[in-house]
Amino acid sequence: MGIATVGAAFVVATQGIAQAAPTLQVTALKVPRQIAIAAGGEVASRALRTDWNPPAGYVLERAFMGDDASCRREGDRGVTEGTWRQYVCHGKMVKVADAWVLHQYLYVKK
């Protein structure tokens, strides 16, 4: 009986931990910054280079919220229908209101 009681207490304790785990720290998603100090002693803050450019010959076809799989489905459909020959998906975290969401950019080569 003592073992069953300990087991039940463990299950209850782990359920409490599991419920508390989903709390996310949104501040961790902010763009990293670095400090540059000029020769004259001036301090300037600038964002690290996070730009992404599509390959040459590709143009932006569509941008939407979603995951990489949904972007690939859209790209494959365009290739199958003959709308474009090739595509590239690029995901980027975008801040909407006070939340960060994954935004997909579909670039195509016609």
Structural overview:
The protein has 110 residues and is α+β, with helices and mostly antiparallel strands. Helix content is 30%, strand content 35%. It has two helices and five strands, in the order H-E-E-E-H-E-E. The chain has helices at residues 2-20, 68-81, and strands at 33-37, 43-47, 59-65, 86-96, 99-109. Strand 4 and strand 5 (99-109) form a beta hairpin. The longest helix is centred in the first third of the chain and has 19 residues, at 2-20. The N and C termini lie far apart (71 Å).
As a percent range, the share of strand residues is 35-45%
Shape type: globular
* Number of H- or I-type helical stretches: 2
Q: Give the number of DSSP strands.
A: 5
- Arithmetic mean of pLDDT: 70
Kindly list the characteristics that best describe this protein.
110 residues; alpha+beta; three-stranded antiparallel β-sheet; two-stranded antiparallel sheet; 5 strands; globular; disordered N terminus
Set out the fold topology.
Elements: H1 2-20, E1 33-37, E2 43-47, E3 59-65, H2 68-81, E4 86-96, E5 99-109
Antiparallel strand pairs: 1-2, 3-5, 4-5
Summarize this structure briefly.
With 110 residues, the protein is an alpha+beta fold. 30% of the residues lie in helices and 35% in strands.
